[in-house]
Amino acid sequence: MPTEAFSTDRRSLILGAGAAGAAAVAAATGVFAGARPALAAAPKQGPMKPTVYRFTLGDFEVVTVQDGTVPMENPAGTFGVNQTPEAVSELAAANFLPADKLINGYTPTLVNTGSEVVLFDTGTGAARLPAAGNLAERLAAAGYSPESVDVVVLTHMHGDHIGGLMADGKPVFPNARYVTGATEYDFWSAPDRLTGPTEGGAKLVQANVVPLAEKTTFVKGGDSVVSGITAVEAFGHSPGHMIYNLESGGRRLVLTADTANHFVLSMQRPDWHVRFDMDKEKGVAARKAVLGMIAADQVPFVGYHMPFPSVGYLEPMGEGYRFVPVAYQLDL
Ligand SMILES: [Zn+2]
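A: This is the predicted complex of the input protein with zinc ion.
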């Protein structure tokens, strides 16, 4: 190879690289006339977070669907009502959480057993749109429609669980039958609940649940909803609050509903009283029993107010449990 030619070629290559580099700098800075300035004109889109999570449990397909999230003030006023605000703030800070705010999410769970589509709880309904009340639209993103739901299970009858049963006075899940705890229904549907502290809740039950009573099966602990799904009593958060044991193909998932509603404060300190627990001491007892069972059995659970996708494990830690959110465990 002629040395001269090589040198020339190499020199022009180096010059070329230099020129390209200069052009790149000019384009980025817009220094030279005629160069295309960096516009940075794409508007920011705002936060985007997942609201649907679909996975397999044995022969079941499970979908957690976030109906919405609502910010709340004063965590101590809800999740540590028998504690000093300082004690609650300290535990929050130790877990990288602010002392004065929290995000409360609502996550119904859909289970396709292969022969029935079972939906657990229904979100807030239109009452909290647009922050929450988005269940139907997000079910569609997961490949399911309200029409495809065969069974709606109500874990209990607080507004964020039964609000999505009706829209404009009509059932949102037109082909569904319903399952709920007999104790819960008897409490809320009794006429004397329509006055006093239960008034608001009882009125919603009259509007959304009572009209569906003829299509409802009332269960107690140990009863089966469909094959592989069994009701378990966990009274306290509400008088007849039920959780559900899901089993398929040798896999198990516990649906804990509102047994524990803050992934740090109620898990690490299950004995702290919670404002929304209608019977505070029974709420504590239910938390200790259910969380202890999940940790001992080392099974995953899905919790209605856990941070999305609302599925995790529990590791014993001090006087309570550490919430371990799922990563890839359910895919194995
Ligand atoms: Zn709830």
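Residues 1-46 form one domain. The pocket of zinc ion is lined by residues 158, 160-161, 258, 304-305 (CB under 6 Å).
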